[in-house]
Amino acid sequence: MRPEDILKIFKRFYHLESHRHISGFGIGLYLSACIIGRHNGRIWAESEPGKGSTFYFSLLL
After folding, report:
1. How far is CA 48 from CA 17, 24, 39, 51, in A?
2. Which of 30, 53, 52, 26 is nearest to 43 (CA)?
3. Domain of 10: which CATH number?
């Protein structure tokens, strides 16, 4: 995933240009971010183009 995509992937209906052929509504990461945010948490991703991405989240108790 490109660095500029990481800033957008948690927005509603966003699809990576390279994954437009994959079906879906583009709301999975958005909903995850909303749920985590409502629990005073944080979600983020780290990616190396061509190698893969890792997603993280933390929740405050």
Report:
1. 16, 23, 29, 5
2. 30
3. 3.30.565.10
* CA–CA dist 53, 43 (Å, integer): 13
Q: Total domain count for the chain?
A: 1
Q: Where are the beta strands (DSSP E) in 1-61?
A: 42-48, 52-58
State the residue range of the domain holding 18: 3-58
Would you say 43 and 57 are in contact if contact means Cβ atoms under 8 Å apart?
Answer: yes
| Cα gap 11→15, rounded to integer Å | 9
pLDDT digits (tens, 9 = 90+) for 17-58: 766 666 777 899 999 999 999 999 999 999 998 899 999 999
pTM: 0.79
